[in-house]
Amino acid sequence: MKRISVVFLQVVIILIGIVALAIMIRLPLTEGKATNLDLFSIYSDPFILYGYASSIAFFVALYKAFKLLGYIGKNKVFTLNSVKALKSIKYCAIVLSIIIVTAGLYIRISHNKEDDPTGFLVICIITTFVAIVVATAAAIFEKILQNAIDMKSENDLTI
What we know:
It is built from five helices and no strands. It has helices spanning 3-30, 39-43, 46-73, 80-110, 118-158.
């Protein structure tokens, strides 16, 4: 892969992280019930804090993807570090999907009867699906990469 492509993808990952962070900071301020609250009350809401805690898995996965692209840029794809990065991405995606499903179930069970949680639940379903697809892709790439490393080490031993 050309170095320019790797740098471009790393910049895209950084931009995704910045946009996600900006959304996490700005979105609670625009929520309907936040208009009459002070900043401490807005950001100490349990559901907002749950969102911030769950974002740790997302940002860890972004960091590992950034590192994986660094290995690709240095032509060190067939190393155990790459396999570990893919394994971390897989686990982060699994954890994120579990966290999203838990939040969706919580909202479904405890929402106000006057509110309609359909939009939130649809977003939960879509993001859970995306997280599962990412976990599956990372698992497949991890397996392929591990098999390639194993074959390479077997060939190095026979030579």
